Amino acid sequence: METHKLTTKDTRLGEWLIERFLLIAGISSMLIIALIFVFLFKEAIRFFATANPFDLIGKWVYDDYDGHYVFKMMWQSVSEVPKYSLIPLICGSFLVAFPATIISGVLGIGCAIYLSELAPSKVRETLKPTLELLAGIPSVVIGFVMLAFIATFAQDIFHTKFRLNAFVGSLGVALAVLPIMITIAEDAMRAVPKELRDASYALGATKWQTVWGTVVPAAVSGISAAIILGFGRALGETMIVLMATGNAALVTGNIFSSVRTMTANIAAELGSVAQGGEHYYSLFLVGAVLFTFTFGLNLVSEIVLNKMRQKLRM
Amino acid sequence: MSEILSLTLPSLTAQRVRWNEILSDVLVRFFALIPLSALGFIMYMIIRKGAGTITWQFLTQTPTEGMTHGGIFPCIFGTLAITLLMILMALPLGVAAAIYLTEFSGRGLFFRVIRAAVNNLAGVPSIVFGLFGVGFFILFVGRNLDHVLKTGMLFGQPCMLWAAATLAVLVLPVIIVSTEEALNAVPQSQRSASLALGATKWQTIWHVVLPQARGGILTGAILSISRGAGETAPILFTGCAYFLPRLPVVNLFGVIPIVNPFDQFMELSYHIFIMATQSLDAVKTLPIQYGTTLVLISLTFFLNLTAIIFRIHFRKKLGAVSV
């Protein structure tokens, strides 16, 4: 009796300790995640200690050549008068991410329709792991392939001025975000109840009339979540754009021009910057802007997906 | 009149519909081939160009003659060391957090907040982790540790420890999500049975739940190792070196050689990036670039394949249990 009591007490203490330990692990995981946010913005805000917020758009610079002041939207962090305009970087990021999202969106929805509506289960079971293997290719390898094989090939076809340009980068990024887009869009289509398809067939609709008229409209929120998430991933892709877009910070709408994205800008300059200076904080500011974009897109796609799940459950 | 219409219209639309059907079918099948052929193209090109470079010397020697000759052994060593260090940090924390979330916390506010945080962390650009590694680990934690412990510049500079810690934060969501999935896959009835037999909550988790979830947790761990081995952006500024004349190894008590977490290191993915974009003679180093890429892609391909096979096996086993 005596020993029994002791062991229960021991166990109870042990249980309590283990639960506390696990709770601490949970809390510290959350803290680390919160810290990313805190540190990024803490360092970013310091930029404004020395710089004018208006500098983020552009700067009036005296032009020796013309002899008067001109308004310049440039990212030139290591010149005599440093210029920290975010416009060329945001422009570059979108010039890569938009085409990439369009390419992978069209391909991804097509693949998702095939996987969920047409593919025999055998084909599906081999295609899904293939997608995972594609997703598992390190982005530096895709960047390298773009740099070593595709860039010259694309230049020969389109006769572009620059070998490395936004288009080549967006092809690589499209490949990188394709697997996750297919996965989410396919999940959404498979979540559409079979009864809806049966009803459509019973009314005399053909296979593709059912797909376009019933399945896709029912899964439209999931599909848009996939596209939004893919766009966020495309904005955040670093190594591919660093290697394949040419890294020239230009304000341009030309997809065959060299561009520099926000991600590539951080990657290219953080290594050579003196810690604690204006330039250093400006890179954190770019990071914070990038984080805000991608976080917002993720959040929207998460909310859309949750709404869809709730609707389909009812 | 209406009779004629009803006779002709359906046949007309039917023909157009049939064409649409065929066209859509072909188009979608073609789309489905694209990811497959992209994977095939990448693998084929890299194997074709890189296979000639892979020799025993290439895998076991250090770079020589201004990086244009020699092997990539320091990069392989660095990649293995950093992923090992990363998984040692991330796995215990991630698994413990996931156990708390699935078995203890319920579905309250805490659960939802951490769930949302984990989901969003997966979408944070990898370069932002690099910024975080520099700003938090090196400058904040490292410099303050140096200040308190009076260790000079031991902690407050880029090194393997901080690079591994940055990668650990990056793979934490992967581990938490996959562990949660594995734990949730264990049938609730088995927990109830164990508790009904008088086992405590922790005894149930330790002896009933965890043994069955082991396969799923392992799958997540392998996937994170593969992810960590392939990432470049987070380690660009937290510890990678273009060239190091020595391995990051230190002799413990002067005799036992161990990985030195306070040293910088060379790494496969970083090596590819730096050789492809910044080497002085890009043409001369091209075979090395292909060879290094082949080694890295084989490593991640092998790891991912193992994880996929593991998961299929694990799902089958659990399926049999729950029936």
Characterization of the model:
The complex is a heterodimer of chains A (314) and B (323). Chain A has 314 residues and is mainly alpha-helical. Chain A starts with a helix and ends with a helix. Chain A contains twelve helices and four strands. Chain A is globular, with a radius of gyration of 25 Å. In chain A, α3 crosses α9 (220-236), α4 crosses α6 and α7 runs antiparallel to α8 (207-218). Chain B has 323 residues and is mainly alpha-helical. Chain B has one domain (48-322): MetI-like (MetI-like fold), CATH 1.10.3720.10. Chain B has ten helices and four strands. Chain B has helices spanning 2-50, 56-60, 73-104, 109-121, 126-149, 160-185, 188-196, 201-230, 268-278, 286-322, and strands at residues 63-64, 69-70, 249-252, 256-259. Chain B has a two-stranded antiparallel sheet with strand order 1-2. In chain B, strands 3-4 form a two-stranded antiparallel ribbon. In chain B, α3 (73-104) runs antiparallel to α8 (201-230), α6 packs across α8 (201-230) and α7 (188-196) packs antiparallel against α8. The N and C termini of chain B lie far apart (63 Å). The interface between A and B is large, with 87 and 86 residues.
